[in-house]
Write a structure and sequence with these properties.
Layout (H helix, E strand, L loop, with lengths): L2 H9 L2 H5 L46 H11 L9 H7 L19 H6 L6 H22 L3 H6 L8 H8 L2 H9 L14 H4 L3 H20 L1 H11 L5 H4 L2 H17 L5
Helix pairs in contact: 3-4, 6-11, 9-11, 11-12, 12-14
């Protein structure tokens, strides 16, 4: 016991000694320092996937028909001028765009506004593209794994049925995040954050535009060209979500085959 503690006990009154209390020692007890834990290094951030070498407009939010056509030709590796300017603008115009509905935004228009309001929105093309994507995706999976046992034995479903898994792959939010971001759609598509635009969110708007791109190819160039665009520019971006090595290898095969076709398939 320290000297300060002995002195404190000697000076304490008897009443205090009859209790269980002990005078406080002036020396504070030392506390053990916490054992340092080994520093865990944070995993390195996952590198961002490279963007498509797209031809972007000179000014964001003011897309001309020629710029829309050049953009679509660049991301789909098609000859310049493949898409008429009016069709290209329609493909990239969401129904939330303020000039897509004349009744909601009646005249008078400025000259610049008139140039931006000459085409309709892409809902119809998105409808066509959605059905085409569903068909192409199902055809790819079933042709790569021709038996039911092969499908269910693959590391693809992860507890889901095949219809649910395919629906998740081609969901508009998934297409918008995985495909739309790589295509830099946010730099070119025409939409507004009004009630219609906020209904599904930014990712859904991009996903619907991805569908409209395939729908536009289907409408203008035919199903073989749309399927080639899917094999070249959508399926490879979804490879990581296929998970199963056999499906990933099959996706590489169909991509190489589609590249061998070259040009515009009509």
């Amino acid at each position: 016991m320290s000297t300060s503690c002995v002195r404190a006990l000697s000076a304490a009154p008897r009443a205090a000694l009859r209790t269980n209390r002990r005078p406080r020692c002036s020396r504070a007890l030392a506390t053990e320092a916490p054992t340092p834990t080994a520093a865990t290094s944070a995993p390195p951030p996952k590198p961002k996937a490279p963007l498509y070498p797209a031809v972007l407009p000179a000014e964001r939010g003011k897309l001309s028909g020629d710029e829309a056509s050049a953009y679509l030709s660049s991301i789909l590796s098609l000859p310049a001028g493949t898409f008429p300017p009016e069709l290209a603008l329609q493909i990239l115009t969401h129904k939330s765009y303020r000039f897509a509905h004349r009744l909601a935004h009646p005249p008078p228009y400025t000259e610049a506004e008139m140039a931006q309001s000459q085409v309709s929105h892409n809902a119809r093309l998105g409808f066509v593209g959605r059905r085409a994507l569903a068909a192409y995706m199902a055809m790819f999976v079933h042709s790569s794994m021709p038996t039911t046992n092969a499908v269910y034995a693959a590391d693809f479903l992860r507890g889901k049925d095949i219809a649910g898994k395919l629906d998740a792959l081609r969901h508009q939010n998934n297409l918008g995040r995985v495909v739309g971001d790589r295509w830099q759609l946010g730099e070119v598509m025409r939409w507004d954050q009004n009630e219609t635009g906020r209904e599904g969110g930014y990712s859904k708007v991009k996903g619907l535009t991805v569908e409209a791109v395939i729908g536009g190819v289907f409408t203008h160039l035919g199903s073989p060209a749309a399927q080639r665009a899917y094999h070249l520019h959508i399926l490879p971006l979804l490879q990581e979500q296929l998970r199963d090595p056999a499906l990933i290898e099959a996706a590489e095969r169909v991509r190489n085959s589609a590249q061998g076709l070259g040009g515009v398939v009509s």
